[in-house]
Predict the structure.
Amino acid sequence: MSTSTDAAAPGQGAEIEIKLALPAGSAGPLLRRLSAVPALARHRPVHQQAHNLYYDTSDQALRRQRAALRIRRVDGGVASQWLQTLKTADAGLSALSRRGEWEVPVDGPALQQKALREAPPWRRLDPDGTLFAALKPCFSTDFERTRWTVRLRGGTAIEVALDVGQIVADGRTAPVCELELELLSGPPEALFRLAGQIARRVAVLPLSASKAQRGFALAQGVLDAPQRARPPVPPRRASLQALAVPLLSEMFDQFTANLHALLGADHPELVHQARVGWRRFRSALRLLGPGLAVPPPAWPGLQPLLDLLGELRDLDVACTQTLPTLQPAYVAGDARRALTWAAVEQSFRAAATLQRKAVRLALQEPLTGQSLLGITHWLEALGAAPQVPAVPARRWARERVARLCLRWKKARRDAVDAAGQHRARLLAKRLRYNIEALRTLLPERAGRWHERASQQQADVGALRDTVQAGVLAARLEAPLEVVAFLRGVAAGLEPPAVPDDGV
């Protein structure tokens, strides 16, 4: 924890750090790669074992206030040390966190109320001691910490900590393999410079969820649940800049959170929601981008991962939706055809398994993490950049969404072939995502635009899924009769006309 009185330092009661998940997940190779990073190679690491027990009430009163309380035992010196820590956080969604932190040495494993009352937030959270009396252990974390203290020019100091271990909650376990870069003194920009050095040698994945957040999710059995859109409600009088940062941050967090869950879980919805998060982010960026003070970075290093996710999504849809739906029509009570179809479905499932492994390998590529870290850095820079003059978000949103709606309607009218229908469908998605994100700023008729765009997206999507199943079946060398059947079904599908209504 920071205790420096330097004006450039976070100071007592504050913590500024970047949290990075490490997709490679093997302690020995990670430690060797990290030790080769020039900024770390000059410093001898310290090895410690940390056991942490987190406390809250039965109804998670602390968690609902975005606070976390733990007792930590640190082994690695002459004797064990006990630390009691209270952390608070704002509603931000970023791998760069700015949190309140009050940490004090204590005599042993028991919580000490007197020490807690020295932290100003606790006096607000528990003015009469009722909350303290209701605290109980919720989950624990155990990990080996390898820690470097990096001192740079200008008085900047950063603690780099590699944590490898596990979270334990109600008999469930989840791995911990992450890197924390905590600012001890100096500007936050130094964290990104050092993180960039590390990302050139080690695959990283920006992670907004703390160990405490992950522990509560594990205890509730929802740790790897797909993260869906949770758009913030923008103030009606917000400027474009004030609107853009929380909006884009939530979308990017949906993308990275589902990527992180994909490292250890196979649920097809994780792939879908990761792609939704990215498409929402790209759609909002296209809408808002011309009015932003800081241009977004390029991300060529992400393209291999995005391509693999798209291919995996096609296989998942075929396995879970298209093939099961069409199976009765193909089999029609014929035992031989039933066996043929079952073999085709098995080949699709095997292909999806291999594709999921390819996605995980792509997450272990340093170029992937460099691109993700670059977007995280850009979002932080965007939030800090002044915008002169301030652009009213409500006026901007209405004009831009109306213009996008006109483009979609024209594309829909001009869609005379499969390529045209696909273009119209992509515009329908962009329109839907942006209306969902900006609904409170838009006129009432935007609800009708959303309804029509969603309808076209679903109708054209069903046709595309069937076409794609035929393409995949041919690629997987399915029997010709199955490929012909899928192509015949696709040929017989035609999206119904979407009613036109004025903008």
About this structure: Confidence is low (pLDDT under 50) at residues 1-9. The two ends are 55 Å apart (CA to CA).
